[in-house]
Specification:
Helix content is 33%, strand content 23%. It has 494 residues and is α/β, with parallel strands linked by helices. It has 3 domains: 3-96, Udp-n-acetylmuramoylalanyl-d-glutamate--2,6- Diaminopimelate Ligase, Chain: A, domain 1, CATH 3.40.1390; 100-329, Mur-like, catalytic domain (UDP-N-acetylmuramoyl-L-alanine:D-glutamate ligase), CATH 3.40.1190.10; 338-493, Mur ligase, C-terminal domain (Protein-Tyrosine Phosphatase, Chain A, Alpha-Beta Complex), CATH 3.90.190.20. An 11-stranded mixed β-sheet has the order 9-8-7-10-6-11-12-13-14-15-16, sandwiched between helices. A 6-stranded mixed β-sheet has the order 17-18-22-19-20-21, with helices on both faces. Helix 13 links the parallel strand 19 and strand 20. Helix 13 crosses helix 14 (414-422). 47% of the residues are buried.
């Protein structure tokens, strides 16, 4: 791309030196700079890109985007000074990749809980319908069924545009994005044109970042305001009207609003819900009538997730009978009330629940078929929102036995995390074990045939962050190995 054309998207700027003719790439990490590249200096929480300008130039950068004047060789490189490089990266990346989201059907999903499940359900159904799709979120970047790592639920603005561009190049028709409140506030979705916006729910989380629930809800609402006002476009908002925040979101968008619910009249309703150990059954009431559903997803909360996904595909014009056939075929979403297959005489579930509401929903999803004890392990991250910890333990107290542990402790001592959790316990049948691996093993050690265990907090994640380092950790693998040792006699006889 011609450098002058690219830089023209920055309305307020000061240029020092001479712009090159062509630009071949954009980078925000000096280590990834290639020859004839634009390097954008981003000031992050721990590092400042302005400190790595010389490295970027040495690697081939021809233009530096900065928030301040820099002493560099203007014979080698041009300097473009802007007020805010974080905003600039969204403008530049969108321009460089030629606004790729306009070429795809973009689905954005926001809410405290359910984003990953709804996105996974959607992609599974699209794959079943032979629709090429991409997905980005907590699990990473899934491109036509191939999974790549990503750093955050909502990636930075440059990475986001790169992924959308790649999806376009690979022939995808639809891209599904988990949209976090952090991503919305920090401008990581700059330049993304959404066609469908889905709201799942709003419950206590991330108040260390947002401050209040009001501000948290306002952050989520940005997805719907960013649908725009061009009513010639076919765009849709899909809202869980059982959550009071949906009433606010209705007022924010001018586009058609579709609703889903299990408690009140809506465009898509889940009625007569029956929870089983291996499936969930319900009647789905839709604009085209009521249909019986038997799906592999477990729990009442997954009825909500299924309704959101069905509504999204329906607004895309896909025939309802096709949608419902695919819904009944999809497997459970990894790490979301995922029942581990084993010959053990106990039932083990892995779930990502890390908020009070998600813990409550995880427990309620199994109570209907609980035979003996429910053992619930709950952990929370260090150096994050402390106010939710006692509430998490309070919700976990519904279980017969609770193990309080950590999630990603980071740099916070185990004792600090556990003491906050312990304040919320409603009975004395619990243990405090900071080391999560030992906590998982303890759950197995006390389990008896017929018991049920839910490991909450890590879900699909196969690591723990201790200090600043990621260490391998998988609740499921640890639990199954410990279970085989404990119940080896009984499993060998089966």
């Amino acid at each position: 791309m011609r450098a002058a054309d690219l830089i023209s998207c920055l309305p307020v700027k000061q240029i020092k030196g001479t712009l090159p003719n062509e630009i071949l790439d954009i980078a925000v990490d000096s280590r990834s700079v290639q020859p004839d590249c634009v390097f954008i200096c981003i000031k992050g929480y721990t590092v400042d890109g302005h400190d790595f300008v010389e490295q970027a130039i040495a690697n081939g950068a021809r233009i530096i985007i900065s928030e301040k004047d820099l002493e560099i060789d203007f014979e080698r490189v041009a300097l473009v000074i802007v007020d805010d490089t974080t905003r600039a990266v969204g403008l530049l990346a969108s321009k460089f990749y030629q606004y790729p989201s306009k070429s795809l059907s973009m689905i954005g999903i926001t809410g405290t809980n359910g984003k990953t499940s709804v996105s996974g359900i959607l992609q599974s159904m699209l794959q079943g319908l032979q629709v090429k799709s991409a997905l980005t979120g907590t699990i990473g970047f899934n491109l036509n069924g191939v999974l790549y790592d990503s750093a955050n639920t909502t990636s930075d603005a440059l990475s986001t545009q790169q992924m959308i561009h790649r999806a376009k190049v690979e022939g995808c028709e639809t891209m599904i994005m988990e949209v976090s409140s952090h991503g919305l506030v920090l401008g990581r979705l700059a330049g993304v044109e959404f066609d469908i916006a889905i709201f799942t729910n709003l419950t206590h989380d991330h108040l260390d970042f947002h401050g209040t629930m009001e501000q948290y809800g306002q952050a989520k609402s940005l997805l719907f305001s960013q649908l725009g006002q061009n009513l010639e476009q076919s765009k849709h908002a899909i809202l869980n009207i059982d959550d009071p925040w949906s009433n606010r979101l209705k007022e924010i968008t001018s586009f058609p609003v579709w609703t889903y619910s299990i408690k009140q009249p809506a465009h898509f309703e889940g009625l007569d819900i029956q929870l089983h150990a291996d499936c969930t059954q319900f009647n789905l009431k839709s604009p085209e009538g009521t249909f019986p559903i038997r799906m592999n997803l477990l729990g009442e909360f997954n009825v909500y997730n299924a309704l959101a996904a069905v509504a999204a595909l329906y607004t895309k014009g896909i025939p309802l009978d096709f949608i419902l056939k695919e819904l009944e075929k999809i497997p459970p979403v990894k790490g979301r009330m995922e029942k581990l297959e084993s010959e053990l005489p106990i039932s083990i579930f892995i779930d990502y629940a890390h908020t009070p509401d998600a813990i409550e929903k995880a427990i309620s999803s199994v109570l209907a078929f609980k035979k003996k004890r429910l053992i619930f392990l709950v952990g929370t991250g260090g150096n994050r929102d402390r106010s939710k910890r006692p509430i998490m333990a309070e919700k976990a107290s519904v279980a017969d036995y609770v193990i309080l542990t950590t999630d990603d402790p980071r740099n916070e001592p185990y004792e600090s995390i556990l003491s906050d959790l312990e304040k919320g316990m409603k009975h004395d049948q619990y243990a405090c074990i900071g080391d999560r691996e030992e906590a998982v093993k303890h759950a197995i050690s006390i389990a008896e045939p017929g018991d049920m265990i839910i490991f909450a907090g890590k879900g699909h994640e196969d690591y723990q962050i201790i200090g600043n380092t990621k260490y391998p950790h998988c609740d499921g693998d640890i639990a199954l190995a410990a279970g085989k040792l404990k119940f080896q006699d009984s499993t060998s006889r089966t």
